[in-house]
Amino acid sequence: MPERNFRDRRRGGLLEVRTKGTRPGRGIEQEHGMTEYTPKAVVTAGTGGIGLETALGLARRGWDLTLVGRDPERGKAAVARVDEAAGRGAGRFLGADLSSLAATRLLGERLAGEGGLDLLVNNVAACGPSAGRARRASS
Predict the structure, then answer these.
(1) What are phi and psi of 78, to 5 degrees?
(2) What is the dihedral of CA 90, 108, 110, 124, to 10 degrees?
(3) 3: Cβ–Cβ under 8 A, 6 or more apart, which residues?
(4) Is 95 helix (H, G, I), strand (E, B) or coil?
(5) What is the DSSP letter of 21?
(6) CB 69 within 8 A of CB 75
(7) Under a CB-based contact definition with an 8 Å cutoff, are residues 18 and 6 in contact?
(8) HSE (CB half, 13 Å, CA atoms) of 121?
(9) pLDDT tens by residue, 44-87
(10) pTM for the predicted model, two decimal places
(11) Radius of gyration of the chain (CA)
(12) Phi, psi of 110 (to 5 degrees)
């Protein structure tokens, strides 16, 4: 099990949090020195509720996870739970406010630059121009 020390890194304007010493998406070494492909998923709003439960289920099945959310503290806690469920450093957190089109675009560019993705779980409650109006109306 990886250490539970966390490090925060700013990459491309996004906050990334993962368990110290882990590198998701690198594959699993097999008995004969061959590498098995490890599928990668991104779960938006993955720090609690349905998003986190989905991430935990995928982690138990051998997936590497990128959890996206706004709160770094909840992100750290969620990564710890994902890593525990997987029995290895399977998770990381990227901080982004997906109600902002600029932040969404930045996140997309970052993920695209990292190579392939096998699954996107778009679990954000509201997005698009009407989301801001709804948030202001409920304030």
Answers:
(1) -65, -40
(2) -40
(3) 19, 20, 21
(4) strand
(5) T
(6) yes
(7) yes
(8) 24
(9) 999 999 999 999 999 999 999 999 999 999 999 999 999 999 99
(10) 0.70
(11) 15
(12) -60, -50
| Amino acid of residue 11 | R
Instruction: Give residue 76's identity as a one-letter amino acid code.
Output: K
Token couple for 94: 């990227």
User: How big is the chain, counted in residues?
Assistant: 139
Q: Check residue 23 and report its DSSP letter.
A: -
Q: Are 95 and 66 in contact (CB under 8 A)?
A: no
Name the token pair of 60.
């138990």
Residues 1-25 have pLDDT tens digits of: 444 444 444 444 556 665 555 454 4
Position of tokens 């525990």?
84
Q: Which two tokens stand for residue 44?
A: 């938006």
Tokens standing for residue 37: 């492909």
Question: 111: which 2 tokens?
Answer: 């993920």
